[in-house]
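Re-running the complex after MR caught last week's input typo. The corrected sequence lines follow. Everything else is unchanged.
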Amino acid sequence: MEALFLTCIDNGFLEGIVRGYKSGILTQSQYANLTQCETLEDFRTQLSATDYGGFLANESLPLSTSTIQEKATQILVDQFNYLRGNAVEPLNKFLEYITYSYMIDNIILLITGTLHERDTHELLERCHPLGVFESMPALCVATTVEELYQSVLVETPLAPYFRDCLSANDLDDLNIEIIRSTVYKAYLEDFHSFCGTLGQPTQDVMQRTLAFEADRRTINITVNSFNTELSKEQRAKLFPTIGRLWPEGNNQLAKADDIDQVRAACETVSEYRTFFNDAGVSSSSAHGNGGIDDLAAASMLEDRFFRMEVFLNKQAFLQQFQYGVFFSYVKLKEQEIRNLTWIAECIAQDAKDRIQDFIPIF
Amino acid sequence: MSDDYPSLLRSERMSLVQLFVPTEVAHDTVHELGELGDVQFKDLNPSVNPFQRSFVGEIRRIDDMARRTRFFDAQIEKEKDVVPVRPLYECAPLLTVGPRSAQTVDELDTTLSQYESKLTTLNESYQTLSERTRELTEARHVLRETAVFFDKAHTQTTNIRSSFDDSATPLLTSHDDREGGYSSGSFDLEFVAGTIERSRVPTFERVLWRVLRGNLYMNHTDIAEPFIDPSTNAETRKNVFIIFAHGDVVLAKIRKVAESMGATIFPIDANADKRADALREVENRLEDLQTVLYNTGIGRRSELVKIGESLRVWQDVVKKEKLIYETLNLFNYDVRRKTLIAEAWVPTRDLTKIQLALRHATEESGTSVPPILHELQTSKTPPTFHRTNKFTEGFQAIMDSYGISAYQEINPGLFAITTFPFLFAVMFGDIGHGFIILIAAVYMILREKAMAKQDNGEIIGQFFYGRYIILMMGLFSIYTGFLYNDLFSKTLHLFHSGWTFPDNSTRGVYTGHTYPFGLDPAWHGATNALVFTNSYKMKMSIVLGVIHMTFALCLQVPNHFRFKRKSDIYTNFIPQMLFLQSIFGYLVLCILYKWSVDWTKSPVSPPSLLNMLITMFLEPGKVDPEKQLYPGQGFVQTVLLGIAGVCVPWLLISKPYLAWREMHKTTGAGYVTLGNGEETAIARHSTDETLEGEEEGNGRAIAEGDEEHEGHDFGDVVIHQIIHTIEFCLGCISHTASYLRLWALSLAHAQLSEVLWSMTLDGRTDPKSIGGWIGLGIMGFMWLNLTIGILCLMEGLSAFLHALRLHWVEGNSKHFEGGGYPFAPLSFAGEGSKEA
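Corrected-run output:
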């Protein structure tokens, strides 16, 4: 009880703010209206009736999907920065942890881009604004992991995560993927243990969300590593050591060769069982062209993961006085931006038949 | 109530009218009605999405025009020198009604887009030019700074050559020496020079250090003047940097890092002569460029000035057009799509005015088909509309912010005009302080026209809006100040005092005549002054409170008559009145009686009225002869208590009983409430929500219960009545006690002003020396400031809040029904003033 009051003093205001933000998330009926739009102008008119308000009012016509996405992300970033600006320890640290995942994404984006000799400024523009750090542009210089670490990352909070992958010497596509997975694994484990220090309600909610995130990564890595050069031992190293599949499920997944074995590994967790229902059926029915089918199954799987993520994040709002709401809000809003972009894209490309394929939140 | 004159007692009688507007005149009709500002249109297609409505195309066009005007506005604001914008009232109006209206709007649209494209091109060229200028300026800075740097290095090397062992040798020079490439004026040391944003310098340095493992020498200096981005007006400050390093690979790396950090790199020659040439060239080009830039700026400015001349008219037109089309979107098309059908609430009194406006609109538009207006019969609740003027507006706003009164209900805002300033003044009573706020109010009223036009800011704006309230509060405070005989905590000797103090005695002797008005000044400074004023003000607050509550209770009656609920008079009003009067009315009588008795000549000591009231409840019928106020007191009190006791079950039961009998009668006669069951269920559902909100707000339930007499279940009536009974009976006690705030605040105010006087001016008013005069000056200044700041502003606000509460809670809970919704007519006036 005492802890409860203390949380209130420090974070009550911000929790109120974030719950207020949450009620601005688009509802089913608003999505229904959005999907009826004929043009992006209709889309804008419709959005102006929601919490987004006139965020596109000063854009000259014609609108593009990327402007919509950019502006919507800007709203999220502004909200996040407001929260962060008003946060005290340990919430401050917690919010910082949220940005780490964006930082990892940005780093990977930059080094992949540099590898393929893209224009640096174009790459910098594509970085997620939440994951920007000041020495980030210098990433373009690095050609080896060692250099990358020594020149730039050593001063970022991500440095400890990168320490484990210094062995990989050349930067190529596979190595970058391995770096991403290793770093992300380290990040998830660190975040997980950090949430463990935050006391009961936060720990509960966050570890549930993070466990799912870890499982999702594990399964994704497994599915994506079929028929690649990645050896099974290497694969096993990339799996986060948290999550509900760990350790038995992870062990099985490390040995898996096709999607059926993945499904078998996930049988132990009842929530994950349904993910593979249709996917499994279609894969066994059309065993002939396994490659294409795996692809379809994977995309369907991805979709279900998103749904599950939304569900878990929504659940985080059921409990008060914990930090999970901040994490969940950012994730939900991100999903919403993905949805908006999807709908806008469908409208722009006149692909009305697929417009319903977004993931509704409320 | 006759409808001859508009009155504040009840809200305006409203009519629901239906308008058939031919499509040709629709625009002009709405425009005319918007100018009139007396019609509230109803949304006839609430289920239609905003982008599926009829006039969405027009709205979109107007939105685009609005965006253009906003763009112009932003551009004008950004311009460094102020561009004159002609205010709306000085511009020639742009006619958007009549047969040429569509053309006018089209023309406006083209004008706007022309200006926009012109401005955008100008902006673009201006931008490119300033970009070039910026680059050249940076280049100049780099050249100059590096020149300085090289010169310094030059002299230093020559100096240092003589002393090789100096451990403090700068990195550059030692490096230089090792290279041995330095020879009279030619450098073949490799370096990178450029500019970078100042905030990035530390990161830049750090990254370079790590990338090159420290194999570099870097120097940087600040550029004094900031660079201003012409499109955003954002200032950036930059630094010139120069980095010496060795080897092509390393230099390439430096360049790459620099570029990715957003630095601009300039090719600088190591040769001093070449640098000088480059500098000269850069300066020449810069000069040319600046001339061009200046001319472009002038061109852009003249364009903006042209825009500024008519920008306000455009904004006005765009705003009105948008409002018109948004209103038209609320209309319905008839089957053949020739006519628009609108429904609207209008004040019944203004029907002819609206008819006239419609005719005028038809004439204006040059067609012969007039819009047809006819009144509808409706069972829907009309909006509440109080016609206010600048005097009553503030008082009405005070009451409206508590809740919008129901349609045609007695409006508490009318009575607030006197009761509000009076209750305020009871707490604030002081001639001097009252005079100060009166002066402030009079000043605002005299400068009304000027102040209404300018933007006063939030705080001053609030005061200005309430200027007539402040005026009344000032007047009443002066009056109560005379009653309390209080002028900045001093007294006025207007008449001869009723008391004399013979031979420095502290005991006053009554002279036989009574001080004719207000408090006798002899009380001021007396040792028992506080005891006296306390008792006096406390009793007075109770008397005023009971009068105010009784009055508020009486306001129920016209409502009961108006809404045809005569039974409520006996089920609610009479028992409530009896309850209130038999306890607190009796207390007031006792107070007045006690005041009228000369207790110095009485054989018994004056009894405590508080104890009397308590024993009246605890030991009914028994009165200690020592503490008896008048003979027969015990019996009277028993009777009164009995009446109050009877009133409670009366209040509790009679109304549910009547409802039950009514129900019995209808069902007994064979009627079943099925016919409109569904409809009433919906209606009840919606009103219930508002009711609940209302109950939370003002803690009263009865009247709402009554409103839906037939719609409500019997159970609802019972529950409402139980709540209401408990609420009222407990409320009577707590509300009476609540009026004691009048005493408390008035006491606090008087004491505070006395303390202020004694702390600052007391004893200094008659200075004998120069020091005394200076002290008087300083203290007088302090006193004046604190009087205005604390006693008038802060105390005034607190008294204002308490007066507000007494009206909202203690007064309104006795009669106010609320639950109405305000009349929100389509009006251009409000929109216009908001912008200007």
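None of the earlier attempt is carried over here. Residues 99 and 130 of chain A are 6 Å apart (CA to CA). Confidence is low (pLDDT under 50) at residues 280-291 of chain A.
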